[in-house]
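Is this the right way to post structure tokens for a design question? Let me know if I should format differently. Anyway, here goes:
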């Protein structure tokens, strides 16, 4: 190795190991990865795993950079990312793309490093060749090692009851046509009951995180008199469904968590309650949306219920959520039967005009008794007084105009 280059390397390592320099590297590499892999970017826990993997790999890489022959020492965080991708039933291609995009980002980063070498330093081409020789070797060997990790996890989850349960859960979430009795047999879970989905996660994915999360899921099930189904979704994340005869009390869920050891380490997102396979799927989608909202806003709140943040989630753009809102809030009122369009028009005007019958009658040029009759029809169809959930009702009517009734 050139003497000038040999003297430059420890200086570079010292500078690159500073916290702000590591942050800059992680941002440049991970920003490119997240732009190229939207399914990864949409999952806040996977994003956290990615950041941890990139950061720790770079830090270990720097510590070994003075060795002429690169040695791979994968940190646990890199393995955790591969495991999380496998446990989410994603394809191997996602993991490979992470490292393929990372290779391009690292090359770009090292090109900038070489270009910034001062005139009295080592030859810039020598710097780039040395950095990329080590970086490219690291990435290639990491891929080979993590492919083994990925397939070992897949093989483990493709055998036994856990594998069948996990695959059935993902099939239901994908919308595959499964008979309720078949799903119940595999899952040992009353799928035709009212389903309330939870996402439980630890901000720090410690080695015993899944044990803690599963224990909490069991405690929540006991506190709400529910049958609880759980599947791991990552090193520090568990998906859970509560099957009950009626929607569980959200406060009871919070109280069950607070009473447990390590409660301060766990956060929970809660979907709304709905029956059957559709409820199983919709409630999980809502819990995931609530989780993303909770991660985005931060704060110390341990539980986030989708019902409390639904409008914020919908404003962020979620067509499936919009359709579920319409279906849940309006129910049979979305039908095409003759006269329902007039009932919907009346209800919309009534809500817009502050629930004033006389003003609604004047606006629609009909008698007040006709307005009252139509409102009574609407109340019977939606199943609760019009004084409840007025904001959601008004929003659902607007969304119905834009999206139409759910074709399913």
């Amino acid at each position: 190795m050139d003497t000038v280059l040999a003297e430059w390397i420890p200086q570079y390592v010292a500078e690159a190991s500073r916290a702000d320099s590591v942050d800059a590297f992680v941002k440049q590499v991970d920003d490119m990865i997240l732009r190229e892999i939207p399914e990864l970017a949409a999952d806040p826990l996977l994003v956290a795993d990615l950041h941890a993997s990139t950061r720790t790999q770079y830090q270990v890489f720097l510590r070994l950079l003075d060795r002429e022959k690169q040695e791979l020492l994968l940190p646990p965080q890199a393995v955790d990312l591969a495991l999380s991708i496998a446990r989410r039933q994603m394809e191997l291609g996602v993991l490979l793309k992470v490292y393929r995009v990372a290779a391009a980002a690292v090359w770009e980063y090292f090109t900038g490093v070489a270009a910034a070498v001062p005139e009295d330093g080592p030859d810039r081409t020598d710097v780039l060749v040395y950095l990329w020789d080590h970086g490219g070797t690291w990435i290639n060997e990491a891929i080979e090692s993590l492919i083994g990790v990925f397939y070992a996890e897949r093989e483990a989850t493709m055998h036994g009851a856990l594998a069948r349960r996990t695959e059935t859960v993902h099939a239901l979430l994908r919308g595959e046509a499964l008979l309720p009795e078949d799903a119940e047999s595999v899952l040992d879970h009353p799928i035709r009951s009212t389903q309330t989905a939870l996402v439980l996660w630890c901000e720090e994915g410690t080695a015993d995180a899944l044990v803690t999360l599963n224990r909490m899921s069991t405690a929540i099930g006991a506190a709400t008199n529910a049958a609880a189904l759980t599947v791991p979704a990552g090193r520090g994340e568990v998906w859970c469904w509560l099957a009950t005869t009626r929607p569980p009390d959200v406060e009871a869920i919070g109280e069950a968590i607070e009473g447990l050891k390590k409660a301060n380490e766990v956060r929970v997102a809660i979907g709304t309650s709905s029956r059957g396979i559709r409820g199983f799927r919709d409630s999980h989608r809502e819990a995931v949306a609530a989780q993303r909202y909770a991660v985005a806003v931060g704060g110390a709140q341990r539980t986030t219920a989708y019902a409390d943040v639904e409008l914020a989630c919908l404003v962020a753009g979620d067509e499936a959520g919009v359709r579920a809102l319409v279906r849940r809030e309006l129910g049979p009122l979305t039908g095409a039967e003759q006269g329902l369009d007039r009932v919907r028009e009346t209800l919309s005007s009534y809500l817009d005009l502050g629930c004033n019958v006389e003003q609604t009658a004047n606006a629609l040029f009909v008698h007040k008794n006709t307005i009252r009759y139509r409102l009574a029809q609407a109340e019977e169809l939606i199943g609760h007084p019009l004084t409840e959930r007025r904001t959601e009702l008004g929003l659902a009517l607007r969304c119905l105009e834009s999206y139409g009734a759910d074709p399913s």
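Format looks fine. Someone answered above. Worth noting: Residues 61 and 319 are 43 Å apart (CA to CA). The beta strands are 194-202, 227-234, 237-244, 266-270, 274-275, 303-305.
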